[in-house]
């Protein structure tokens, strides 16, 4: 265990000089087989063409995240346990917020290439925001379906989404390439938008309609999650177990391909045990608070996995964000000497500040190393200054032929570089 991580609050820096050097050399690699991405490309290309050239890609990303989080919190405010039917307009608001987030998340990479400001920081920032949004997107879908009536399924749905997102980056850490399947993020997001729209039209109670015997309509969503989850996990497992790109089939950092399972287990297993063993029914009574608190802990761990991949460094198992879950676990062991709701609020507050502090410090260190700003970019774009307006047109055409994260662009650039050398 690296003492630097555990003493992060006493250290001036998080990333080492070697990690920053590796980060500078990092090249984004992606394989996208999404069924719906090609159909949405015209909309994304149109949207980015209307985006001002002075607007920084990271600013686009963070605005989308804020919209998504705020709209979800409004829904949570009306139905914190997922039992009380929220007003229909809150479901519509969530559908709108998710659509905005998806659209902005899909054009930030295009904007970066359009303004010639692509950098490893942009990739890291994008994945970091995605790790947070995953928590709120999953929670909003569960509330819209009124899954608070079935706490076990609510837990399964939310932590399944969190776990699958982590596993996607786990296989990236092993193989060096981020892979999107035929049914993946875009398809899931559009499905959830559809769920919110159905709740808007028919009301959230619609999902409690019985269809076959005692089966209710929401069970179709859970069945879909199980099928898609098994499909995704089987593919991810095959990539991981096939061996990594490192020496002797190891990860990009030369570590065991199974090592990332430990941090994920340290989040999900305590979350499950605490929820099941709670004498105060802490999860059932405070479902949204519980999901957000543990979701932010998972987001911190996922961010560290992404950084480990991009810097080709060993991933650390323990983290300060696990303090809250650890206290909840110990409190139950000693027969709850402290009210669990107090510790749950502490977990949320601690995880929030820990995640924000960590992300802010990492971003500032990378900005200083790469000599760039986080939320501002040079204007006019460097391409416009050095090569004229035609370069911007060419850049836009490249982005239109690539996936939403720009994978095709990077693969082409890599091949061209190889030819030159």
Can you walk through the features of this model?
The protein contains 17 helices and 4 strands. The protein is mainly alpha-helical. The N terminus and C terminus are likely disordered.
Query: How many beta strands in the DSSP annotation?
Result: 4
Radius of gyration: 22 Å
Low-confidence stretches: 1-10, 384-403, 405-421
What share of the residues does DSSP label as strand, in percent? Answer: under 5%
| Overall average pLDDT | 88
Give the SSE string: HHEHHHHHEHEEHHHHHHHHH
Query: How would you sum up the major sheet?
Result: 2 strands, parallel
Estimated structural class: mainly alpha
Distance between the termini: 40 Å
Number of helical stretches of at least 4 residues: 17
**Rough shape?**
globular
């Amino acid at each position: 265990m690296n003492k630097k991580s555990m003493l992060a609050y006493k250290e001036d820096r998080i990333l080492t000089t070697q990690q920053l050097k590796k980060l500078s050399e990092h090249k984004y690699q992606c394989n996208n087989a999404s069924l719906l991405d090609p159909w949405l490309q015209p909309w994304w290309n149109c949207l980015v063409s209307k985006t001002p050239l002075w607007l920084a890609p990271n600013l686009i990303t963070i605005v989308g995240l804020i919209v998504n989080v705020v709209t979800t919190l409004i829904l949570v405010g009306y139905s914190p346990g997922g039992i009380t039917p929220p007003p229909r307009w809150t479901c519509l608001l969530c559908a709108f917020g998710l659509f905005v987030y998806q659209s902005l998340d899909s054009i930030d990479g295009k904007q970066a290439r359009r303004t010639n400001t692509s950098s490893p920081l942009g990739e890291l920032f994008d994945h970091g925001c995605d790790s947070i949004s995953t928590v709120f997107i999953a929670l909003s879908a569960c509330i819209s379906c009124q899954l608070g009536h079935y706490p076990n399924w609510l837990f399964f749905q939310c932590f399944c989404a969190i776990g699958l997102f982590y596993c996607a980056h786990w296989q990236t850490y092993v193989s060096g390439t981020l892979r999107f399947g035929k049914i993946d993020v875009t398809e899931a997001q559009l499905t959830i938008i559809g769920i919110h729209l159905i709740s808007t039209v028919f009301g959230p109670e619609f999902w409690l309609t019985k269809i076959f015997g005692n089966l209710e309509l929401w069970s179709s969503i859970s069945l879909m999650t199980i099928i898609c989850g098994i499909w995704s996990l089987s593919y991810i497992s095959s990539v991981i177990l096939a061996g990594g790109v490192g020496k002797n089939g190891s990860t990009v950092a030369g570590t065991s391909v199974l090592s990332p399972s430990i941090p994920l287990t340290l989040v999900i297993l305590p979350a499950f045990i605490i929820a099941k063993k709670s004498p105060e029914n802490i999860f059932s009574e405070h479902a949204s608070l519980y999901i957000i608190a543990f979701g932010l802990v998972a987001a911190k761990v996922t961010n560290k996995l992404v950084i480990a991949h991009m810097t080709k460094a060993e991933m650390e198992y323990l983290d300060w964000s696990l303090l809250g879950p650890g206290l909840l676990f110990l409190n139950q062991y000693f027969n709850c000497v402290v009210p669990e709701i107090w510790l749950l609020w502490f977990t949320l507050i601690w995880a929030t500040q820990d995640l924000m502090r960590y992300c802010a410090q990492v971003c500032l260190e990378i900005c200083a190393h790469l000599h760039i700003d986080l939320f501002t970019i040079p204007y006019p774009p460097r391409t416009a200054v050095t090569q004229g307006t035609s370069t911007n047109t060419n850049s836009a055409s490249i982005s239109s032929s690539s996936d939403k994260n720009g994978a095709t662009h990077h693969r082409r650039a890599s091949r061209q570089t190889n030819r030159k050398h």
